[in-house]
Amino acid sequence: MLHHLLLTIAILLLLTFACAEKHPSAKCQALKKTLQLENTTILDVAYVAAPTNVSTAGSCQSSASVTAAPLCRVYFVINTTATSAVHAEAWLPDTWYGRFLGLGNGALNGCIDYVDLDYGTSLHFAAVGSDNGHDGASGLPFLNHPEVINDYAFRAIHVEAVVGKQIVEAYYGMPAARSYFLGCSSGGRQGTQEALKFPDDFDGIVAGSPATDLNNVLGWEAMLSHYVGETSPDSNTTAETSPKFITPELWSVVSAEILRQCDALDGVKDGIITEPDACNFRPEAIQCTDGETTGCLSPVQVEAVKNIYSPLYGLDGQLVYPRLSPGAEADPLASFIFGGTFFTFTADWERYAVLNVTEHDFTNFGLQDIALFNEVNPGGSATYDGNLSAFRDRGGKFLTYHGQRDPLISSTNSKRVYDLISHTLSLPLLDDFYRLFLIPGMGHCFGGLGPTSFGQGITTGTNAVNDSAHNILLALVDWVENGVAPATIIGSADGDGNLTERTHCRYPMRSVFNGTAFVCDE
Ligand SMILES: *[C@@H]1O[C@H](CO)[C@@H](O)[C@H](O)[C@H]1NC(C)=O
Ligand SMILES: *[C@@H]1O[C@H](CO)[C@@H](O)[C@H](O)[C@H]1NC(C)=O
Ligand SMILES: *[C@@H]1O[C@H](CO)[C@@H](O)[C@H](O)[C@H]1NC(C)=O
Ligand SMILES: *[C@@H]1O[C@H](CO)[C@@H](O)[C@H](O)[C@H]1NC(C)=O
Ligand SMILES: *[C@@H]1O[C@H](CO)[C@@H](O)[C@H](O)[C@H]1NC(C)=O
Ligand SMILES: *[C@@H]1O[C@H](CO)[C@@H](O)[C@H](O)[C@H]1NC(C)=O
Ligand SMILES: *[C@@H]1O[C@H](CO)[C@@H](O)[C@H](O)[C@H]1NC(C)=O
Ligand SMILES: *[C@@H]1O[C@H](CO)[C@@H](O)[C@H](O)[C@H]1NC(C)=O
Ligand SMILES: *[C@@H]1O[C@H](CO)[C@@H](O)[C@H](O)[C@H]1NC(C)=O
Ligand SMILES: [Ca+2]
């Protein structure tokens, strides 16, 4: 009773104190004049009083709804050097749970992630997203701007964290108690780079489908497009000119054959190949026989397909990158690689960050180009290093996930990275600070087949259930703040009316069908 009374008095005092404070909208507006941060200019401040839709000018045309309003939006720019700058937004919700959230980017961009700003603030984080040091999706800003490349390679997220936390502290009058990072794809690489280079920036990191070993993944993606005859990022003439090209119709034949050979390996014929690394697909099974010309592969197409589903080895015989996962070709994003043009991000990388030219002929793209990428390693962007000891020693927690039907970044690479860390640190299992969840059926970062929503953000609709068993960001919070590490992540199906779930396993456990459900097995 006395306890209750004291609590009531405490709450009343708090409320009184809160009322004596300026209204959040006044506090928000005041930031424009009062914030004085080194190398940083506050460009705009806006208090968003009620849920609304927002968008931004510039080449990204980012837009999102603000569902967590009321909140304060702060738009700012950080000069990182005399020739580079990072533009960023901080979204500061009135209802704040004392947590900071740094956000990542995708591909080579250049675009503040509004969807994740909204997602993070909806869970009451103070969230900050940046443009990664340049505007837009093209790699052109890298050309002859090594400091812009440095922002992309390692610095943008670091200054986003450092300056972002200062803004959060100035606004709320107290520092964030904990700081987190959320990103996928390029964002997954950024989170990994943070853990390697700036281990103090974040207490916890969610790094999805990471583009680690960046020079090699870009080289591999281009090789895949090259195998089917693609030579130019600017035109789409491959379909007419190359006998190696595989039309969307023929890809459907390939996918159907892959499922015929491998879908049932996991015990359930459901279109999902639970372990694509166990699928030894033989394209010869659909090679054209005498007189056959449609619905089958010519000998050169068989050769192309065999290359696509084989690991890539370099000039020195070392593995460059694991193979494409059988099944991943059916994901819609596979058209970025097999749609008729040379893989555009690699073309940008080679021209603008490696060769420093505006024009280049990709007809003879090959292993020598990938070797050059690694030699130049623009800005130290490779992000392939197993030494996470500093992050581990400061108590950092790292969660990563990878869709096993990802057509852009092979999930096998995330196993390779796990094994690299394990080997480097001489730890048989990384469970005490690093956990990798493999997601059968999921494409790149989200979507695909089966229950693939588990709070990873990136797009709306991936936060089907709000609790730490189903939401990887809340699982990370639980791990950092309560010491409760996620043994599994339960995925939910994306809004098709019926909520289906599947338990996703942490590597090196395997997802095994026990007759009624998939369970995680040592
Ligand atoms: C940032 O750089 C711009 C352009 O060089 C300059 O005008 C501005 O004053 C700089 N801002 C700060 C805070 O250093
Ligand atoms: C935001 O835009 C979407 C789609 O255009 C619309 O359905 C929604 O009602 C809008 N929300 C608000 C708060 O204006
Ligand atoms: C401000 O920028 C300069 C380089 O332009 C850098 O040396 C300095 O460390 C920066 N300060 C902060 C707080 O980042
Ligand atoms: C999850 O939902 C509950 C109530 O439905 C809410 O109280 C809680 O704040 C939510 N969690 C987060 C982190 O937003
Ligand atoms: C290129 O051509 C193929 C085959 O005609 C077509 O399916 C694809 O959509 C085209 N891709 C682009 C980027 O225009
Ligand atoms: C291109 O410029 C970078 C510095 O940004 C340099 O490291 C690289 O060697 C240059 N590439 C060539 C082919 O000269
Ligand atoms: C890892 O990095 C730490 C510094 O953070 C260093 O002391 C240690 O020797 C490195 N370990 C290995 C295996 O390279
Ligand atoms: C949802 O479940 C009901 C009952 O099992 C079924 O009839 C319906 O087809 C399902 N809807 C979808 C979209 O799967
Ligand atoms: C299979 O796993 C599910 C979920 O853990 C469990 O409920 C069921 O009893 C198991 N079935 C068998 C045959 O072990
Ligand atoms: Ca299956």
Automatic annotation (TrEMBL):
Statement: the UniProt record of this protein carries the keyword Signal: yes
Keywords carried by this UniProt record: Calcium, Carbohydrate metabolism, Disulfide bond, Hydrolase, Metal-binding, Polysaccharide degradation, Serine esterase, Signal, Xylan degradation
GO molecular function, one term: metal ion binding
Spans through the membrane: none
GO biological process: xylan catabolic process
Keyword check for Disulfide bond: yes
Catalytic reaction equation(s): feruloyl-polysaccharide + H2O = ferulate + polysaccharide
Pfam families: Tannase
Domain of life (superkingdom): Eukaryota
Enzymatic class: hydrolase
Alphabetized InterPro entries for the sequence: AB_hydrolase_fold, Tannase/feruloyl_esterase
EC numbers: 3.1.1.-
Coiled coil ranges: none
Signal peptide: 1-20
Family (UniProt): Belongs to the tannase family.
Protein name: Carboxylic ester hydrolase
Species this protein is from: Mycena sanguinolenta
